[in-house]
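job 3f2a | input accepted
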Amino acid sequence: MSVLLPPPAGTALLVPVKINSNSKTRLSGLLSPEERQALARAMLRAVLSRLAGAYGGLPGVGLAAVGLADGGLAAVGRDGEALNEARGFGFEIIPEAEQISESRSVDRACSRLAGQGWRGVLRLPLDLPLFHPVALNPLWEAVQAAPGNIAVLVPSRDGTGTNALYRSPPTAFASRFGPDSLRLHLEEARRTGVEATVLSLPELGLDIDTPEDVAELLGRDEAGENSGGAIRELLLAWGVAERL
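job 3f2a | predicted structure (244 res):
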């Protein structure tokens, strides 16, 4: 396996947390509500544990999670359970009393992290079954090669979404997560004079939102830490391959 590169000093890694009865609604024809929640929780746990194992305790690197909570530490429902799990992995919890949109959640968290002195923030989603921190090496190399106000974007598998977004400073421009977010983020970067780089990274490109994404994951047979094996085994144990 490749040598793991550390993030630039002053970098925080941010994971938005949202796990409830509406999780992964585009999979509703394939998975039950309970299965969708369990899948989201399993993928989140994998991302949290790998980030914590690779970067937890490194000087100049922060881990943060933003999600719905009532009164800060008194968490609500499954979102709260997931936040407590993130806390257990050493993540700073940025609580919300309400969730308006992922973009608002991420930007609010980025403002808080910038106020704490973090110079750059990488937002990663919770649903990356192939994720391993080594996959971030090209992103950190791109950040190191372009000091100043910059952004690095990793598109989704279909090339329209934004699966990873690094911004320095963290509030360089507004988040535009949702349909066609890659184009919208690039427009925001141009509008604000931020140098933007797009990196296609397969381990970050596959997120699990649709039955087609599930079929892509189940069709993989390679081994290794970034193969998505644990998530594949969970889906296979539920008999999902026979439902496709």
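job 3f2a | The chain has one domain: 11-239.
job 3f2a | closed
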